[in-house]
TrEMBL record:
PANTHER family: L-ASPARAGINASE (PTHR10188), N(4)-(BETA-N-ACETYLGLUCOSAMINYL)-L-ASPARAGINASE (PTHR10188:SF6). One of its GO terms (molecular function) is hydrolase activity, acting on carbon-nitrogen (but not peptide) bonds, in linear amides. Gene3D superfamilies: (Glycosyl)asparaginase (3.60.20.30). It comes from Nitrosomonas communis. The active site is at T161. The lineage of its organism: Bacteria, Pseudomonadati, Pseudomonadota, Betaproteobacteria, Nitrosomonadales. This is Isoaspartyl peptidase. InterPro entries: Ntn_hydrolases_N, Peptidase_T2.
Length: 307
């Protein structure tokens, strides 16, 4: 559902394509709204989309309700290993980290890699880079929560990524992702989240997309790239919904995605049970916050019914 009026800025944030357990619904809704508000304040004041997207994801990385930063999934060794990325639509610069440990905010590490001669740093090299840049380090075990220990013990599936797309008043688009990966995954496994064209992409002339879900399937289908290709000819809603369905038909898997156009039109879709997300544009009086896509129509009807 895009906005028809001229949009000066827009931001969307999500908490992962995942099942939200009973009793955790409001926690997820509150979390994505707080993240959105952190980015929205920056955009509303004339700030840039890079700062807004980073601010939004730092909120989610601090929130144990989401699989990123504090509260990340645990690998087969009962360790946190994280991925994150950011892409600037203005110059196609990318900053990404994979299998990074001992950092508090992976998205901020990824942000500093923008405009470097390299785009993706992994493992011990990523931690060393963060230390050299004076970024926030931490004991890796301090990122572990009891909930994630139980998920590993119970062999529960965990595969959600947090993400944000933002458009600022200068017309710049940014995509950003952060994740703790898969519960029980092999040490060193890297998913779609730090891979451009798979878990994210941004280009000012076309749009921006971030994804969450089954990373291996998203990578196999280079989902972000395909959505961007379709976005050049159709609106965000059709682009993301048609390609998520197509991926499932071709290679299986669940995914959820947020898409912004250069004009601030937005679209989102998921085939997972839930996809907590929050959206606001310069033309909205208040944010729109959803637990799943089926809630959107009902909320839109309530908004339009207001005097």
């Amino acid at each position: 559902m895009g906005e028809s009026a001229q949009v000066k800025f827009a931001i969307m944030a999500h908490g992962g394509a995942k099942p939200v357990p009973p009793g955790k619904e409001q926690t997820n809704l509150d979390g994505v709204q707080r993240a959105l508000e952190a980015g929205h304040r920056i955009l509303q004041a004339g700030g840039n989309a890079l700062d807004a997207a980073e601010a939004a994801l730092r909120v989610l990385e601090d929130d144990p309700a989401f699989n990123a930063g504090y509260g990340s999934s645990l690998n087969e060794n009962r360790e946190v290993q994280m991925d994150a990325a950011m892409m600037n639509g203005e110059d196609l610069q990318i900053g990404a980290v994979g299998f990074v440990q001992g950092v508090k905010h992976p998205i901020s590490v990824a942000r500093t890699i923008l405009k470097k001669e390299y785009t993706l740093i992994t493992g011990k090299g990523a931690h060393k880079y963060a230390e050299e840049q004076g970024l926030e380090l931490c004991d890796n075990d301090s990122l572990i929560t009891e909930e994630q220990i139980k998920k590993l013990q119970d062999k529960q599936k965990g595969n959600n990524t947090v993400g944000c797309v933002a458009l600022d008043q200068k017309g710049n688009l940014v995509a950003a992702t952060s994740t703790g990966g898969l519960t029980g995954c092999p040490e060193g496994r890297v998913g779609d989240s730090p891979l451009a064209g798979c878990g994210f992409y941004a280009e000012n002339a076309v749009g921006a997309v971030v994804l969450s879900g089954d990373g291996e399937e998203i990578m196999r289908y280079r989902l972000a790239s395909r959505i961007m290709e379709k976005l050049a000819t159709v609106g965000p809603e059709i682009a993301v919904s048609s390609l998520v369905r197509e991926m499932h038909e071709r290679v299986g898997g669940e995914a959820g995605g947020l898409v912004l156009s250069p004009q601030g039109e937005y679209g989102w879709f998921h085939n997972s049970s839930h996809f907590p997300c929050a959206i606001i544009t310069s033309e909205m009086k208040e944010p729109r916050v959803y637990l799943k896509k089926s809630e959107e129509k009902e909320q839109e009807e309530k908004i339009h019914a207001q005097p």
